[in-house]
Design goal:
Elements: E1 13-16, E2 20-23, E3 27-28, H1 44-56, E4 61-63, H2 72-81, E5 89-94, E6 96-100, E7 103-106, H3 110-124, E8 129-134, H4 143-155, E9 159-165, H5 169-176, E10 181-187, E11 197-198, E12 201-202, H6 203-215, E13 219-223, H7 234-243, H8 247-258, H9 271-279, H10 287-292
Parallel strand pairs: 3-4, 4-5, 5-8, 8-9, 9-10, 10-13
Antiparallel strand pairs: 1-2, 6-7, 11-12
Helix pairs in contact: 1-2, 1-9, 3-4, 7-8
């Protein structure tokens, strides 16, 4: 494999909300928990080492949520990294509850969201969350009511910036009438196309969301950027072979090229995979390579 610079800074940077300057290759802290994103990891020491290594490699935005574990991911982040180094952004989310491995239930009522924020503040040992994101619209609660609850948290000084996740363009526009939205997080990777639905949003809708975020300088976090390690195609494999890179690295490089507002947040419980992902920050696809990857094969 070709040697690539091991620094997230090689991906360039983006100013979330105009003042959170982060490198455009982050870390998603979902997979440092137990199987099914449930309970503690089998090797707590390894999980802590992965988090510390990510920061050593220039990752200065970590994405998590109260539902990862639940609670476990946030607790591990604080244990590994508190007191947090200057410039590190820990972004978390609220709005889902858990009843078991791989089981997720959206809960968007204001009382739950306020309690979720208080729990995240305590676990992360913070007085204010730099970026707090509504995890998912709750079909039982008007979307605007959930967004207003997060806006209230911001007005109370407990949230610096607000983001939303698993949304359409129409929902982004609705939310922006209530509070400034600085980030959006939807499932997006090189393998997903068409009308497949994830958390109520089709891939076609997400393509429109990416373009909307690009036009309005809103950070876009693609969750599932590597399709849980199952992302591969003949086109990706061909570019990877020519570059002496891995298919995952090419998939991340494609996301970085797709828009300057995209901040991939691949997650892993392996230091080796973490280093592989961060190495993708230095890969610059040519025009021909990028165009060859525009249609998944």
């Amino acid at each position: 494999m070709a040697q690539h610079t091991l620094s997230a800074a090689a991906a360039g940077s983006f100013a979330i909300g105009g003042d959170l300057h982060v490198n455009r290759l982050g870390f998603g802290a979902m997979r440092i928990t137990g199987p099914g994103i449930w309970g503690p990891p089998s090797d707590r020491g390894n999980a802590l080492a992965v988090l510390r290594r990510a920061v050593e490699l220039g990752v200065n935005i970590i994405d998590t949520a109260d539902s990862y574990g639940p609670d476990v991911s946030e607790e591990l982040i604080a244990e590994a990294l508190f007191p947090y180094p200057a410039g590190l952004v820990v972004a978390t989310k609220g709005g889902q509850t858990r009843s078991g491995p791989d089981k997720w239930t959206p809960v968007g009522d204001p009382a739950h969201l306020h309690a979720a924020l208080e729990g995240s503040l305590k676990r992360l040992r913070l007085e204010r969350i730099d970026l707090y994101q509504l995890h998912r619209p709750d079909p039982k609660v008007p979307f605007e009511r959930s967004v207003e609850a997060v806006a209230e948290m911001q007005r109370a000084g407990k949230v610096r910036h607000v983001g939303i996740s698993n949304v359409s363009v129409a929902q982004i526009e609705s939310a922006r009438k209530i509070v400034p939205i600085v980030s959006v997080q939807n499932r997006f990777n090189n393998a997903t196309r068409g009308d497949t639905v994830f958390n109520g949003v089709t891939n076609d809708e997400t393509l429109a969301v990416v373009d909307y975020c690009t036009a309005h300088a809103i950070a876009f976090f693609p969750w599932g950027p590597l399709a849980a390690g199952k992302l591969s195609s003949e086109r990706i494999s061909a570019v990877a072979a020519a570059r002496e890179a891995t298919p995952n690295q090419i998939a991340l490089a494609w996301l970085l090229r797709r828009s300057q507002v995209i901040i991939p947040i691949p997650g892993t419980a392996s230091i080796a995979h973490l280093e592989e992902n961060v190495a993708a920050a230095s890969i610059r696809l040519s025009d021909d390579e990028y165009e060859s990857l525009q249609v998944a094969g």
